[in-house]
Amino acid sequence: MNRMVDYLRGCPSADLCRDAPALVAQKWNAMAAGLLALAQDGEGTMHEHVARQIQDLGLTFRVTGDEEERPWPLNPMPLIIGAGEWSQVEAGLIQRARLLEALAGDVYGPQQMIKDGRLPAAIVAGSRYFSSKMVGLTPPGGRYLHFCAFDLARGPGGRWRVLSDRLRLATGVGYALENRLALARSTGPLLGTLNTRRLAGFFAALRDGIARECARERPRIALLTPGRFNQSYPEQAHLARYLGLALVEGRDLTVADERLYVRTIAGPRRIDALWRWIDTNALDPLRFDARSAIGVPDLFTTWAHGGLAMANWPGVEVFESRALAAFMPRLFETILGEAPLLPNVATWWCGQRSEAAHVLSRLDELLVGSAFGQEGVLQGGLQGGAMQPGRDLTPDTRRALIEAINRRPMDYCAQEEVHLSTSPVLIDDRLAPRPFTLRAFLARDGNGEWRVMPGGFARLSSSGELLTSLMGEGDLSADVCIVDDVPAAETDITTNIGSAPAVRRGGGILASQAADNLYWFGRYVERAEATLRVLRSILGSSIEADAAADRDAQLRRFLAELLEHWEAIDDETAKGSLAQMCSAALDEHELPGGVGTLVRNSQRVGLSLRDRLARDFWRITRRAPPHLAGDSTEAVRDAVKDLLERFGTLSGLIAENMVRDDAFRFLEMGRRIERAMLTCRIVQHLQACPVGAEALNLLLDLCDSQIIYRSRYLSGAVRDPVYDLVLLDPDNPRSLMFQLKELHRHIGELPTLLDDGMPEAPLRETLALLAPLRGVTVDQLDNAALAKVDDQLLSLSDIISTRYFLPIERGESRLASSLLG
Amino acid sequence: MIYQIRHISAIDYSAPVSFARFNLRLRPAEWPTQRVLSYTQDITPRPSTISEEQGPYVVNTSRLVIPGTTSALRIETRFDVEVLGPPVDPEQMPAPTIAEIRDAALAQCELSPASPCSYLFASTIAQPADEIAEWARPMLAMDRSVVAGGMALMKAIRDGLRYESGATDTYTPPLEAFRARHGVCQDFAHIMIIAARAQGIPAAYVSGYLRTLPPPGKKRLVGADAMHAWVNLWCGAQLGWVGFDPTNNLIARTDHIFVAMGRDYADVAPLDGVFRGGGKQKLDVSVDVAPVEELLGPV
Known about the structure:
Chain A is an alpha+beta fold.
C-alpha cells in the first residue's frame, strides 16, 4: 500500500492511476497490494512468477532482424481502466470503424468523396496498399471490415486520441490474449476480484462475425499466414488454435471453379472464409504481385465471385495511411453527419499547398514523417517507419527534408506532438511511471455489429517515444483490465450469442503440409533417439562388465562405424577417441545424421506444428540442447542421458495427451517407419560382426529389449531368440514386426480418396511388406532379406509422400518473359 | 500511318508444364494517338478458358487457362493499327513547368486508368532511388518546362547508358542497371520513370512496338526486333501524356505503336503466369511491324 502512496507522490500529473476515480483507485490499490503480497508469499519475485507463465505459454516475439525468438516482456502491473472512461473510448472507436467502413465502400465503389474533392485522389493513389483492381467489387455481405485495431494515446486531462488506424494486420490481438492468460495464471483470483471484464466473449464474437458472412451453415474458416518465418507467426498460430481456425499457408491452398480448397490428406476441402494475415498485394500472383510466393493463384476469383468471405476485404489497408488522418475529422461530418467522438491526433498532409507551408513554418513543434508510412529512407533522409520531432533533426537532415518536401510534398505529413499519460509498472518491487500507448481491437459479431475488446495491448516504453512497430528494444507490455464497479452478470460473461456449439469429435481437417511436418517430426525424433542410444552404448553404460577388454573395444569400433554410416560423424572423427567421437556426434550440426542437426530439424518442423501441439510438447521440443561441459566421458554421458530423458518425456506426452486423430497417425507413421528402417540397419550391420554374445547384447541394448529378453530367457544372448525378439515378435514394441503392424494399422485408418473400397497405394505397399514377414521364421531371415525390407520401407516412405503430402516441387513456377527491345 | 503487326512468342519447356494459367497483355488498349483496326490471337495449345479484362491501368489482359500438360506454348498475335501520332507537336507547344505539372496532378479529382495521380508514386519495380534522383535532378529543375526536362532526361539516359541486349533480365532492379550503366529498353524506361517521379512528374511505363524497317534514308530503330518499352510523361491537361523513348532518344510519334500503359513493367508484362513443372524455358520471339503501304508496294 505504501508503494502506491509513494508512486502517486512521485508520478507525473497525467497518470492513468492518479486520474482514476475513487472506485477505480481502489482497484489500483488492490492490484498493487495483491501483486506485492503474491511476491512475498511465494518463492521469488512477481517478475519471476510472470516470467514462468510466459515461458509455459511459449510466448515469444522477434524484433525485426532477430534470428531467435525472444521471451515476451510482460510487466505484471496491468493498466486498469474504469468502465465509465472506457465506454467513451468504445463509443468513439465504434464510430471510427463505421466511418472507415463507409469510406471503404466509397473508395472501392463510386469514389464520390474523390470526385467531390473531399478526399484527394493522390492520397489514395499514394498508398502502396491501394488496390485499383478491387475497385468496383463489393463483398458478398456488404461489409469490407471485420476486424480493426487502433493505437490510442491518453493525453493530459484523460483525453484519449487515435494515433493510428490498423486495418491491415491484427498484430497484437494474440498478444493481448496471451498477456491476459499469463497475468491471470500468475495472479490467481486477483483479476476476478477486481471485476475485470473477460476477453473470451470478444473472440467468440469475432469468429461468429466471420462465420456470418459464409454461405454454408457450418463454414470452415482458415487463418492465412505468411509462414513460420513471419514476425508474428507465434501470435497467428496461437490465435488459430484458440479460435479453432485452420492455420494455412498459401501453398496449402488451391482454387478450383472459383472456390477455395485446402489440400488435405483426405483430398481438397473447401474453405469458406479467410482471416488473412497477408497483404492484398501478395494474395494472388496472377492478379497482384506476380512475384508473390506466399499467395494462391486465382484466389481473386474466389472472393470476386462470392465463393469466399474475406476478413478484411482486400484493399482496405489503404486507409492505414498516416496522412489520411488529416481528412478524417471532415469525413466524419460529410459521411456520417456526426462530429468525431474520439479525435485523432492532429495531422497535416503536405500534398496540399497551404498545409505544406504550415508544416514548414512549425517544423520545430511538429513530428514529421512519411505520409504513407513507407519503410526505408525517404528522400529527405528520414526513416520511413516512425515520426520524428522536427526539432531533433540535425541541420543537414533538416535542410534535406525541407528540400525534399518542396520537391515531393505529397510524401510527407506532420502530426502534433502527443504527450502520453503514464501508468505504473513494477520495476523490482517498486512502482514507476511509464508513458504508454494502447492498441484497441474491434471485431464484428454474429449480428454484424462492432464489438470492442474489453482490454487491449498496452505498450510502455522507458523513452516515451512513439514507436510504430509492435515491440521495440527495451519496451514493456502490459495487460489492460477494464473494470466494472459491480461484478458483471453471469450472462454477460458467457457472451456466446446463440446456442452452445454442437458436440463434435476429431481434429478437423489435416492439411497435407501439416501431415508432412508431423511425419518428419516423428522421423527426426526417432532417428535422434536411436543415435543417442548408440552413443550411450559406446560410452559403456550397459555393455557387459565382464567382457574381455579387446572384444569390448572391437564392439565399440563397430558402433563408431554405425555412426559413420548414419552420417552422424565424418570419417576423420571416426578415427578419434570414443569420447571425442561421441561428443562430436552430439555437437554435429552439419552432417544430416548429427544429433544437433536432427534436434534442429525436429524443432524446425515442430515450429510449424505450433497450432497443433500441446504447450508442454512444444516447450520440450524447442528447449535448447544440453550444454556439453567439456569432452570428458562423464560430461558426454550426462548430455546423452539428459536428451534421452527428454525424448522419453516427449514420447510419453504423445502417448498420453495426443488425440488419436490423423495428425497423431502421421506422427506415429514417421516414428514407426524410421524405427523399422534403423532396426533393419542395426541388425544388418551387426551380422557382419563376428557374432558373439556381446554383439547380441548390444543389439538388445540398441533395441531397448534387454529386459524383455532376460525375463523371457534364462540363457545369455543367443542368435535366434534375440533376432526373433527384435525382428519378428509382434508383441515387442521395439521389434521390426511391431513397427510394420502399427504402420499398417495407422495407414488403414487414414481417409481414402475414393469410395470404391479398394486399398490405396500406401496400404497396399505396407501389406506387401508385412505379409511375407509374417510367414517366415527367424532362421530364414538373412541380410539379403533385411536389405529388401529396408528398400521396401524407403519406397513406402516415397509412396506416403506422393499420396498424402504436397508435390515435392513446392509452389508454382513463374513465367518470366523479357521485353528485349 | 497504318501498320500491320505480327508477333510470335514460342516457349519451349525442358519438362512438361501443368496447371498453367497465364496473363497475356498484348491486345492494344484504347489510346488517343492511334486506332486499332483489327486484332486476332492464336494460342497453342488451345486454352480451356480465355477471359478478357480491362484495366486497372491502360491495359487489356487475356487470362488463359491451359488444360492438361504441355511442353511448349506458342502465342501469335496480329493486328492492324492506324497511328495518328500526337495531335499537337509537343516540341512546338509551350509546356507547363515541372512544378505546375506536379501541382496539377495533386489536384486531380479522379482515379481513372489514365489519371496522372496513379503514376506519381513508387510502384513495385519503379522504387525510389536517391542515386537516380540526384543524377537526374540538374536536368529537371522545378521551373523548367516538363517537355524540355523530359527530353534532356531521355538524352542523358541514351548517352549515359549502353544498350546491351541480354545484360539484364526481367527481374533486374532498375538501380542495378543504372549502376552498371547498361541495360535494355525496359531498364531505360524504369530509370526514366524513377527520375521523373522523384521530381513529382507523373511517369508511366508503356509497352508497344516500333516499326521494323525505317523509312528510306533513316536509321533502323533500336528494339524493333521485339516488343519495346518507353515512357509516358504527363505534360498537363493540354498536351496530356507524351511519349519519350530513352532507348532511341525520340519523342514517340508515328513510329511507336502503343499496346499498354501502367506504373511499371509489372502492370503491363506481355506474358506472366504460374504453372507447375517446366524446368528450363527457352523463349523465341519474332516481331514484324510493317507499314501497310509498304506491303502494298508503291501506288
